[in-house]
């Protein structure tokens, strides 16, 4: 047994731990990259892809090695893979095992997410929403806070910012103008509501609004 293989097999306990932590639909493999065609030197007992010791690197793993991704990163996580044996959809991750900075192997975990993907597709089908165009279209109706809730929210934010100090003229004017920018005063009766809340006259609220227009 070569020295690198001995070093790699020290990761067996870690491989078992990762697979067990991710449940019955997970497996972890250890690859010795000195032989791409027979790289698998360990695979956890719960095997979901049907791969065996003595098996080869995947095409994606080879691409990672050829692109020297390991020189910038210690791992690559949560990419999508497929198992041709049983048509599984996998969430896969690879940890680069290095010895004194030199890459000697890979610790790869595959998690079967086929059922979750199917559940998402069933949910999308049941919702009858075109998710592909959801972010490209504008909703015809927007559901927001009621006018009273919006007034109280802006007021509470101003009070919280002020702390224990009382609201001064500048603070009150700012509240009125912020509410105005949200078109609150287009609703009948809101002038008196806001005036009472910030303890000024309705005439003062109108003055703040007129000054802003000017």
Structure, explained:
This protein is α+β, with helices and mostly antiparallel strands and 214 residues long. Helix content is 41%, strand content 20%. The chain has a 5-stranded antiparallel β-sheet. The protein is elongated, with a radius of gyration of 31 Å. The model has no long low-confidence stretch (mean pLDDT 89).
SSE diagram, text form:
Blueprint: H1 3-8, H2 12-21, E1 26-32, E2 40-43, H3 59-66, E3 75-83, E4 88-99, E5 102-112, H4 114-127, H5 147-162, H6 169-181, H7 190-198, H8 202-213
Q: What key phrases describe this protein's structure?
A:
214 residues, alpha+beta, five-stranded antiparallel beta sheet, 8 helices, elongated
Could you give the order of the helices and strands? HHEEHEEEHHHHH
| Intertermini distance | 86 Å
Rg on CA atoms, Å: 31 Å
Which term fits the overall shape?
elongated
Structural class: alpha+beta
Largest sheet: 5 strands, antiparallel
Outline of this structure?
The chain has 214 residues and is α+β, with helices and mostly antiparallel strands.
């Amino acid at each position: 047994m070569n020295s690198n293989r001995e070093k790699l097999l020290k990761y067996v306990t870690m491989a078992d731990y990762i697979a067990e932590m991710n449940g019955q639909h997970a497996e972890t493999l250890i690859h010795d990259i000195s032989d791409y065609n027979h790289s698998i030197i360990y695979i956890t007992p719960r095997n979901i892809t049907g791969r065996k010791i003595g098996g080869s690197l995947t095409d994606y793993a080879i691409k990672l090695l050829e692109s020297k991704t390991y020189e910038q990163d210690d791992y690559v996580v949560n990419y999508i893979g497929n198992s041709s044996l049983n048509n599984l959809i996998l969430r896969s991750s690879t940890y680069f095992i290095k010895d004194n900075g030199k890459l000697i192997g890979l610790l790869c975990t595959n998690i079967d997410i086929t059922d979750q993907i199917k559940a998402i597709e069933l949910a999308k089908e049941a919702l009858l929403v075109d998710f592909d165009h959801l972010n490209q279209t504008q909703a015809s109706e927007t559901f927001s806070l009621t006018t009273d809730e919006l007034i109280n929210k802006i007021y509470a934010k101003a009070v919280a910012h002020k702390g224990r100090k009382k609201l001064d003229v500048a603070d009150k004017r700012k509240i009125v103008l912020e509410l105005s920018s949200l078109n609150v005063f287009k609703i009948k009766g809101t002038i008196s509501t806001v005036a009472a809340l910030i303890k000024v006259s309705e005439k003062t609220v109108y003055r703040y609004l007129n000054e802003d227009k000017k």
